[in-house]
Amino acid sequence: IKDDYPRTQKLPVLLVGDPAPNLQYHLPAYRFFSGDAKSAVQLGPRMMSVNALSWDKKFEGYRAMAYSIVDKYAASMPDEPVMAFSIGFYNRIPVADITEARSLFKLEVADDVTSFEELSYQSRRAGHAGILLTQVATAPPDERVGENHLVVNNIVRRVLADSDQRTVEDIVVDWQKWLVHAHSIAKDVFWNSLTPAAQKSWNETVPS
């Protein structure tokens, strides 16, 4: 992949005991960035990820990129076992205060939460595609997106049971179908978490 991802970053790796099979996160040892820094591939013990780092990377472009990387990985490491896969969407949304945050999202936050810094919401539910995790939380000030902003995460994760675990080579086609399905679910969940006023504003300001 070095022609498409020429910039390499090596990260320190902390060696610990063998993790439980359902451990949610594994840390990368290497990051490979595209020349324009709009996409990256991360590799590490028991993990591989494909990341779109720019908002203008539409899903169709991301899907083609992910398919290509996973095909290359399957060709070079065909017998590696697959324990889980996931797709996540991370959105940073500038807001003035908690009142505006409430006007944008249907947040199930207690009425006595009045400070922006206290805002935190999480839901987890199971579905056909796996576990869907939705998180809304405040983030440190970032002058690029406004003094206050929310981080809205939608993550769909499927953990394979021992009886369903297969090699990378054997699971590629099923994973491709799952990716498209999981993207559709995460997109619908994000849209339905917006208030009607926010949906209207989104339609008026975001190109189709």
Brief write-up:
With 208 residues, the chain is of the alpha+beta class.
* Uncertain regions spanning at least 5 consecutive residues: 20-24
Count of individual helical segments: 4
Helix content: 25-40%
| Secondary-structure-derived class | alpha+beta
N-to-C SSE string, H for helix and E for strand: EEEEHEHEEEHH
Distance between the termini: 32 Å
| Beta-strand residue percentage | 25-35%
Count all strands and give the number: 8
Widest sheet, order of strands:
1-2-3-4
Major sheet size, sense and barrel closure: 4 strands, antiparallel
Shape designation: globular
Descriptive account of the structure:
The longest helix is centred in the last third of the chain and has 26 residues, at 168-193. This protein is globular. The chain has four helices and eight strands, in the order ββββαβαβββαα. It has helices at residues 59-76, 98-104, 168-193, 196-205; strands at 7-10, 30-33, 39-44, 47-52, 84-94, 120-127, 130-139, 149-159. The strands form two sheets. It has a four-stranded antiparallel sheet, with helices on one face. The model is unreliable at 20-24 (pLDDT under 50). With 208 residues, the chain is of the alpha+beta class. α1 runs antiparallel to α3.
